[in-house]
Design goal:
two-stranded antiparallel sheet, 6 strands
């Protein structure tokens, strides 16, 4: 069963009309990313709403920008407040502002994470990627794909037997 079918069959969430192709393209253009094909297909079939779900039709674009910025902002928070440092960035600068600048310069090259629900994310433009829970630098595999994630997160069906490996640079290394 597809993710959209699982959500609709569950009856647990209000499902609005799917996003039309023009709406999806407008969102992608406005926010500067491309939905993963499976995420796009799910949103085209129906848009879940309620607490935790991003409201892609909301006139409150600030809230959507905050959701999109959350993963990077969380990493920056850990760099500044919790002494996190990713070895792929090279030696950590001694001064906190310099460390933040280095981290930001690398994070702009990391794949963009797109909110699915609460702090569950999919990388932009990559089909069939695992859903990741991203909370600062605490990154956890939450499902092999959208349907498997729904099965696991909301007990909507049978989860997959074995996990799919996250492939996106940087974020996979935080797992």
């Amino acid at each position: 069963m597809t993710a959209a079918e699982l959500l609709a069959a569950s009856g647990r969430f209000p499902i609005g009309a799917g996003l039309a192709e023009q709406e999806l393209s407008t969102i992608e253009h406005e926010f500067g990313f491309t939905f993963a094909p499976d995420h796009r297909a799910c949103l085209a079939a129906g848009v879940p709403s309620g607490r935790g779900w991003p409201d892609w039709r909301s006139p409150d674009r600030v809230a959507l920008r905050e959701r999109l910025a959350w993963p990077v902002e969380g990493v920056i928070f850990d760099v500044m407040e919790n002494k996190f440092w990713y070895e792929g960035w090279g030696p950590r600068p001694d001064l906190p502002p310099a460390a933040m600048a280095v981290a930001k310069s690398y994070l702009v090259t990391a794949p963009r994470m797109i909110p699915v629900y609460s702090h569950r994310y999919l990388p932009a433009a990559i089909d069939g990627h695992p859903v990741l829970s991203v909370y600062q630098t605490d990154v956890v595999h939450y499902g092999n794909d959208l349907a498997d994630w729904l099965n696991r997160e909301f007990a909507l069906g049978e989860p997959a037997d074995r996990p799919t490996r996250a492939t996106v640079p940087f974020w996979r290394d935080l797992l």
